[in-house]
Amino acid sequence: MVSRPQARKLTPYATTMLVGDGDAAFDTSAEVAAIIQANTANASYTKIWERTIPAQQIVGWGSGPASQQRNQGFMHFFALDVGTGFEEGILRLVIANSSEMRSRVVLEVNSQRLHTTTATTAITATPTDINDMVPLPLLVNMPKGGQDDLLQLWFRTTIQTTTVDSCEFSIPATIWQ
What does DSSP assign to residue 53? Predict the structure, then answer.
């Protein structure tokens, strides 16, 4: 009698997605800032960041249980004209299949809620107090992506600044492997 192999149990862990975690065309602050700047006058959403999910992983936006407020992931994002002001808009967190024929929006959030009000430097624009950050827990019904699917950020400008020259973010995610 041949026995069946047991199904592998996936183990989740919390992480954060940073600009540098993106695929080649989206992995520096300057690249993401340039994409936002190039589409400032565009009234529609533009893809500003993307990461391909590697083999043997499942990834979902958010981390920690929604029922435990201080044990959730917290996010920040800013598109900044250093020393002048912020490019404000709506940030979308998306999971798409590899051909981008199917995209699922996980969250839309106003970027004004995701940074401080001090536009002096990237350091001063980054919130450090958990009470000032937006939580993003892992919700059971949120879409998740697997091998070759794409984690994406899309942005639509609502308030323009002079020139976007810096963009940073930290967005919680959960990886199963």
Answer: P
Q: What is the DSSP string of 68-106?
A: SGGGS-EEEEEEEETTTEE-EEEEEEEEE-TTSSSEEEE
Nearest to 145 by CA among 90, 97, 110, 102: 97
In a domain, 147, yes or no: yes
> Domain limits at 33?
17-174
pLDDT in tens, 33-47: 999 999 998 889 999
Q: Which amino acid is at 129?
A: D
- Is residue 36 included in any domain, yes or no? yes
The answer to whether the beta carbons of residues 62 and 136 sit under 8 Å apart is yes
CB-based contacts of 4, cutoff 8 Å, min separation 6 = none
Question: Residues 135-154: what's their mean pLDDT?
Answer: 94
End-to-end CA distance of the chain: 30
Strand-pair partners of 46: 155
CATH number at residue 35: 2.60.120
- Number of structural domains in the chain: 1
